[in-house]
C-alpha cells in the first residue's frame, strides 16, 4: 500500500484514515491537568496505524489532517501547529525504524514500533506542553514542572497506542488486503 502513494486508491485511503483519526479524537475522555486540556483518545493509535500502512507521506498526511483538523475545529487552533509537528516527528521516527527493520511487519516488529510510537509521543507531548506553557507566559522552569505534572493523559494515550496499534494494524492490513483483492 506504500508503493502507489499517488494513486486514487492511496488518496482515498489517506482521506479515510484522516476521517477515522478525527473521529478517534472526537470520542474523548477529558482529564484534569495543570497545563492545557488533555484527554484520552484513539487518534494517536490510528495515526500510527496509518503511518505503518500508508507510508510516511500519506500516513503523516492523514495524521496531520485528522489530528490537526480536530484541533483547528475544536478550540485548540492556537496550538494545532504543535500537534501537526508532533505527528510529523512520530512519522519520521516510526518510518526510520520500520525502514531499518526492512519493512518486516512481523508481530514482534509491529509491537516494537507501537511501543516506539507511544514513547515518541510522550517526548513530543512533553515538549509541546512546555511550549504551550511558555506561550501562556509561564517562566521556563515552572513550565517544565507544569508540563511534567500534566503528563497523565499522554502516558495513558501512549500505553493505549502501544497496546492497540498492533491489533488494529493487522486487522486493517488483513481487511485492506481482502478488499483490494476483491477490487481486482
UniProtKB/TrEMBL annotation:
The keyword Transmembrane applies. GO terms for cellular component: membrane. The chain crosses the membrane at residues 6-27, 39-56, 76-98, 110-128, 148-172. It comes from the Bacteria. Keywords: Membrane, Transmembrane, Transmembrane helix. Pfam families: ECF-ribofla_trS. The keyword Transcription regulation does not apply. This is Integral membrane protein.
Amino acid at each position: 500500500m506504500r508503493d502507489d502513494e499517488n494513486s486514487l486508491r492511496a488518496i482515498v485511503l489517506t482521506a479515510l484514515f484522516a476521517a477515522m483519526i478525527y473521529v478517534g479524537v472526537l470520542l474523548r475522555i477529558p482529564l484534569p491537568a495543570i497545563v492545557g486540556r488533555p484527554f484520552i483518545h484513539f487518534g494517536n493509535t490510528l495515526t500510527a496505524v496509518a503511518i505503518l500502512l500508508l507510508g510516511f507521506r500519506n500516513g503523516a498526511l492523514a495524521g496531520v489532517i485528522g489530528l490537526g483538523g480536530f484541533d483547528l475545529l475544536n478550540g485548540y487552533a492556537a496550538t494545532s501547529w504543535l500537534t501537526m509537528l508532533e505527528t510529523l516527528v512520530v512519522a519520521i521516527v516510526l518510518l526510520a525504524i520500520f525502514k531499518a527493520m526492512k519493512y518486516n511487519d512481523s508481530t514482534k516488529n509491529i509491537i516494537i514500533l507501537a511501543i516506539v510510537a507511544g514513547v515518541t509521543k510522550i517526548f513530543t507531548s512533553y515538549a509541546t506542553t512546555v511550549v504551550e506553557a511558555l506561550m501562556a507566559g509561564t517562566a521556563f522552569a515552572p513550565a517544565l514542572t507544569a508540563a511534567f505534572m500534566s503528563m497523565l493523559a499522554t502516558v495513558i494515550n501512549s500505553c493505549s497506542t502501544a497496546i492497540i496499534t498492533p491489533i488494529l494494524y493487522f486487522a486493517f492490513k488483513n481487511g485492506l488486503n481482502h478488499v483490494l483483492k476483491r477490487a481486482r
